[in-house]
């Protein structure tokens, strides 16, 4: 799939008044000095609610850079659905308000504390695990927050690697021991996770069956996914047959399915799965629950589980996480992992936000460029 | 719970014409000799359909007892829901028609082939794993089919141990590593599996939360289950509150749930389960599917699985199966495992069948006595 990268220019820096010390906003003002960050232009929300109502772009004053701190000038950060849910207050884990939006992104080291080793100004870093407050121009956090990455990585991929591609990679690893020649089935296949699943599976010789919504342009979407390496792509209405598995020609029945839609679309995954298969739910775009027959559990012996990246990220697997991120960024750098993004200048934050909220029709994921 | 054992007398033997050679019915007739079984009075069905329509009680002629065969005079056999489903033709695994009904039971060794060792006339045996054709007075099958059991076991428990109590025992073992002080939650708690779960959990120091239907007599049912060792018993309507877990006083939230009902009753189990818990479905008495929210999978990290005893039984675990059956029969013998049964004379087969089919209101499990 050709990626659409629409760069509309970068917003100029500006200077204002509020103080951000990590995630805590107060009204104190500190003097600017060599041991402080520049002021930071940030997307702040003081209460939970609809993001287009409760967020405002404002400038936070300089904060102190302590001996173990790193001051990072942010380069880019995406607007993910979970960012929207955190601002709405409906996400199970969220920062206390007032808070700065955003959860992942990439930045360049601007200044380091006196005790920091292994990072220098100019290095590229990402917060790993992701942590809140990436929608701003300067962040000061302890060195342990930051993972240094290869600067050759395309910026918009570096900004988005820790949520969607990592979800795809983990789901292919954590539930069923897949080997070359096996098959997976997924819905929501045009999502970034879906696109990554197709490509990461293909790299391991794993076939993919992909389910997409019926919509104008579905033929183009099918062609795009097949270009990424999808074996089969069906719209939901194509699967309104009794024996969906009869549609498969030369690939084995899938032992693993990924569901990010729910409702009827999840049931289609269950129909494809082979005896003893597993369906992993990681999203619910239709806002409809998953309905399963008794016999699917007893006689077809299916297992249903969920995947929550934030839980996995907060577990004690720092080394594995870092090497996975390096692996994924290497694939991005080498052109083996591609997905559709739209880069939006930070000055146009509210336009990008409306697109991310679905208020302007179907749009690619929005990546803020600072 | 006091067990209701209503013995209505035993049917006299009778003699007729058809030949049963194991599960195959033919019209050949063999002469009676020392190396043949007595004729067998049997419940036969020639085609799938409603059991009260397609079954007939008839007499099958003697069959040869080969050197490795054991001829067993059946003493008792239950009418299980899966027996009904096999005759209806809706069970995934079923014998070819024509067939004799029934799948488990207990009998006494009547005669043995010349090469049989370790079994003598008068011994009690059960088919283990259960196998089809137990609704008849004499069965001839190879010695490997039969497991010798302790004759001190109450007959109606020996006849029913391999399906329901074994399901309860396996479900407590196979999904979550439970320790003393843990809790399970189940619906359909008045079923035999439900009664066994309560008692087997109690023996291991495991608490049980039990859900029963709203119905006349629910107070009595609650008292009976508490006598068996249930910690908590709720009717479904009692659980129409937002925070069901707030109802629990002194017992921990359950990590494991058993569902044999489906529909709303299954949702109540999901509400009780703690973070990361597992629900095992082994039946669907309401004939309604299971509906699960996306967030139950992602944020509550629930796992949903199924249990099918027949699959477990057909696996290569003969020794483990035998020792479990001995353990369960020992508990029955010692009065530590009790459940409600109704013993019905074989002559009244069609009355017992109607009760088992639910045509005469709520009835205990029917056990045919030959």
Automatic annotation (TrEMBL), chains A, B:
It comes from Anisodus acutangulus. GO terms for molecular function: enoyl-[acyl-carrier-protein] reductase (NADPH) activity. This is Enoyl-[acyl-carrier-protein] reductase, mitochondrial. One of its GO terms (biological process) is fatty acid biosynthetic process. It catalyses: a 2,3-saturated acyl-[ACP] + NADP(+) = a (2E)-enoyl-[ACP] + NADPH + H(+). It comes from the Eukaryota. Residues 49-368 form the Enoyl reductase (ER) domain. Keywords: Fatty acid biosynthesis, Fatty acid metabolism, Lipid biosynthesis, Lipid metabolism, Mitochondrion, NADP, Oxidoreductase, Transit peptide. It is found in: Mitochondrion. PANTHER family: ENOYL-[ACYL-CARRIER-PROTEIN] REDUCTASE, MITOCHONDRIAL. Pfam families: ADH_N, ADH_zinc_N. The keyword Amino-acid biosynthesis does not apply. SMART domains: PKS_ER. Its EC number is 1.3.1.104. It is an enzyme of class 1 (oxidoreductase). Belongs to the zinc-containing alcohol dehydrogenase family. Quinone oxidoreductase subfamily. InterPro entries: ADH-like_C, ADH-like_N, ER, GroES-like_sf, Mito_Enoyl-ACP_Reductase, NAD(P)-bd_dom_sf. The keyword Cytoplasm does not apply. GO terms for cellular component: mitochondrion. Its main location: mitochondrion.
């Amino acid at each position: 799939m050709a990626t659409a990268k629409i760069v509309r220019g970068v917003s100029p820096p500006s200077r204002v008044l509020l103080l951000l010390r990590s995630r805590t906003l107060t009204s104190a003002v500190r003097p600017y000095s060599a041991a402080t960050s520049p002021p930071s232009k940030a997307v702040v929300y003081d209460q939970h609610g609809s993001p287009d109502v409760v967020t405002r772009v404002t400038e936070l004053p300089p904060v102190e850079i302590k001996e173990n701190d790193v001051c990072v000038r942010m380069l880019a950060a995406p607007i993910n659905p979970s960012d929207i849910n955190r601002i709405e207050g409906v996400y199970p884990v969220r920062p206390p308000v007032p808070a700065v939006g955003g959860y992942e992104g990439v930045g360049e080291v601007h200044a380091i504390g006196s005790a920091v080793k292994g990072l220098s100004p100019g290095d590229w870093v990402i917060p790993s695990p992701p942590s809140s407050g990436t929608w701003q121009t300067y962040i000061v956090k302890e060195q342990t927050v930051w993972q240094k990455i290869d600067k050759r990585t395309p910026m918009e991929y570096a900004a988005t690697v820790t949520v969607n591609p990592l979800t795809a990679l983990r789901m292919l690893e954590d539930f069923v021991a897949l080997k070359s020649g096996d098959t997976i089935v997924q819905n929501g296949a045009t999502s970034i996770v879906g696109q990554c699943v197709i490509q990461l599976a293909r790299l391991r010789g794993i076939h993919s069956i992909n389910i997409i919504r019926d919509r104008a342009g579905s033929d183009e979407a099918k062609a795009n996914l097949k270009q990424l390496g999808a074996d089969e792509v069906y719209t939901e209405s194509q699967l309104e047959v009794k024996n969906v598995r009869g549609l498969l020609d030369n690939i084995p029945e899938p032992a693993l399915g990924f569901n990010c839609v729910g409702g009827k679309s999840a049931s289609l995954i269950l129909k494809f799965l082979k005896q003893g298969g597993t369906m992993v739910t990681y999203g619910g775009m239709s806002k409809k629950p998953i309905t399963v027959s008794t016999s699917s559990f007893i006689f077809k012996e299916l297992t249903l589980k969920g995947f929550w990246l934030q839980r996995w990220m907060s577990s004690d697997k720092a080394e594995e996480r870092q090497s996975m991120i390096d692996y994924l960024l290497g694939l991005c750098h080498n052109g083996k992992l591609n997905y559709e993004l739209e880069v939006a200048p930070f000055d146009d934050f509210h336009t990008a936000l409306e697109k991310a909220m679905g208020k302007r029709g179907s749009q690619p994921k929005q990546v803020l460029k600072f």
